[in-house]
Specification:
This is Glycosyltransferase RgtA/B/C/D-like domain-containing protein. By secondary structure, the protein is mainly α. It has helices at 3-29, 42-50, 55-59, 68-81, 85-109, 123-130, 136-140, 145-161, 168-182, 191-201, 207-229, 245-248, 250-262, 270-293, 300-323, 337-358, 371-412, 421-426, 443-455, and strands at 61-62, 65-66, 432-434, 437-440. The chain is 66% helix and 2% strand.
């Protein structure tokens, strides 16, 4: 067996390690128990089983989102499994595989740009990012499949639009994935302007066909926006979050956006997350300017990378504006990390592409160093190391969460008459604000939801 084959096998095994580790953690530390916002699905189950479910119920708002497709999947899995949330967690994992394989397909499609240094060398880093437990909320929380559904759809849709050959079928497929993404998570709204720019800049589409594609894209985008915002209401946060808050507190807003961007590399310390966000933005902006000056936007690799990076950045900007009124978090919020992981994936790809196009000597050995190579290796190793560390941080919180939820579940099955079962259910039930009261449990609705679970034998009430 030659040295290159051994190296290839070693790298692939190294790339598989985060997947094996994630599966182990999810199998051992996930709990089949509806928690907090997952309870909002219970009235949908009541309507589905009673035959009164309508499209409006699926389409109605959840904060800023219209969760048509996540609702459909929740109801389907709930009916098939008695709402065993471990199946939803398994679906999250399947979508994670889909995201990673889509990235591998993307790199393999553009393999001609990596003739100097093989794409194999960055696969472990991409795996560390995609399967990181820094996004522990999304991996272990069944309802958060909405984020993975969105990201997978966005990734596939944008890769279709940046294919070397674009046909009407490809545009139609991109529209389908964009619709799926938009009605899975509000961030999908940014897909449509990004798609417009991609078609406009695409180097392989003739001018006549480009006009036709852009026209139909604009028409469909307008229909999507009209349908999304029809009867839309601004989410009622208590206290309210005014639209002008970003301009009233610009420094806090910038800090929050930078924290979001840096969160895949640090989820304990806000300051380290902010520093990571600055580090990532500087590299991204530098490479973007370099590629613009080098007129490389006729390159589908760069077009795809920039589009995916903008999607992650735009989501951080919008999320920061929407959550600023809740105050700066004491630590980065895990549920927002999945989309932002894409930002760091793109940085790794762009850095590595930059190294490949900058090496003029074809006889140069990979282990011979120059400053660009040192910077590239150092940066990719640094991103990998911080991603592994943030995954370890997420693992710690996952185990703590498991301890709490498994204890609650165990007590709910207990026959001890001294236990207050309603209080136990209340500890994992969403809290609301009523008047001057903050974080109270709606006991009436909790009783209704428990009656639904019991009547239809869902969750821990199933046979």
């Amino acid at each position: 067996m030659n040295r290159f084959l051994l190296t290839k096998i070693f790298i692939l095994l190294f790339a598989i390690l985060p997947i094996i580790y994630l599966i182990y953690i999810l199998v051992k530390f996930s709990v089949d128990l509806p928690t907090w916002v997952e309870w909002y699905s219970v009235p949908l189950f009541e309507k589905m089983f009673s035959g009164s479910l309508t499209f409006y119920d699926l389409w109605s708002q959840h904060n800023e989102h219209r969760l048509v497709f996540p609702h459909l999947l929740t109801l389907a899995l709930g009916q098939l499994t008695g709402w065993n949330l471990k199946y939803e967690i398994a679906f999250n994992l399947i979508l994670g595989f889909g995201i990673f394989l889509s990235l591998v397909y993307f790199l393999n499609r553009e393999v001609k740009h990596f003739r100097k240094y093989s794409i194999l060398f960055i696969l472990p880093t991409l795996s560390f990012l995609v399967f990181s437990l820094s996004q522990f909320e999304n991996w272990t929380w069944g309802m958060q499949k909405l984020v993975f559904m969105n990201l997978f759809s966005i990734l596939v849709g944008l890769l279709i639009l940046t294919s070397p050959i674009i046909s009407w079928v490809a545009v139609g497929a991109a529209v389908v994935f964009g619709t799926f993404a938009t009605y899975s998570y509000a961030g999908g709204l940014s897909y449509w302007p990004i798609g417009f720019v991609i078609i406009f800049l695409h180097p392989k589409i003739s001018k006549i066909r480009k006009v036709k594609f852009l026209t139909i894209w604009v028409v469909i985008s307008l229909l999507i926006y009209i349908s999304y915002f029809f009867k839309y209401q601004k989410p009622a946060f208590n206290p309210p979050i005014p639209m002008t808050l970003v301009f009233e507190h610009p420094i806090d807003y910038v800090k929050l956006v930078l924290m979001l961007l840096g969160s895949p590399l640090e989820i304990f310390s806000p300051n380290r997350a902010i520093a990571s966000g600055i580090f990532g933005l500087v590299i991204y902006a530098y490479l973007l300017l370099k590629f613009i000056r080098g007129k490389l936007f006729n390159n589908t690799l760069i077009l795809s990378s920039v589009a995916l990076g903008f999607y992650a950045i735009f989501n951080s900007v919008v999320t920061g504006a929407g959550r600023l009124g809740l105050g700066l978090p004491t630590q980065p919020v895990s549920r927002y990390i999945t989309v932002v992981e894409l930002f760091w994936v793109v940085i790794v790809v762009m850095i590595y592409f930059n190294l490949n196009i900058s090496q003029k000597s074809k006889s140069e050995n990979f282990l011979s160093f120059n400053w660009l190579k040192i910077f590239t290796i150092f940066t990719i190793v640094l991103i990998s190391a911080f991603s592994i560390n943030s995954s370890a941080q997420g693992t710690k919180i996952t185990i703590e969460r498991y301890g709490f939820l498994s204890d609650v579940r165990g007590q709910l099955f207990s026959n001890d008459p001294s236990l207050d079962k309603l209080a136990l259910w209340g500890s994992i039930y969403p809290r609301v604000s009523v008047g001057d009261l903050r974080g109270v449990t709606n006991i009436t609705q909790l009783h209704k939801d428990l009656d639904t679970l019991s009547k239809y034998k869902l969750s821990i009430f199933r046979e």
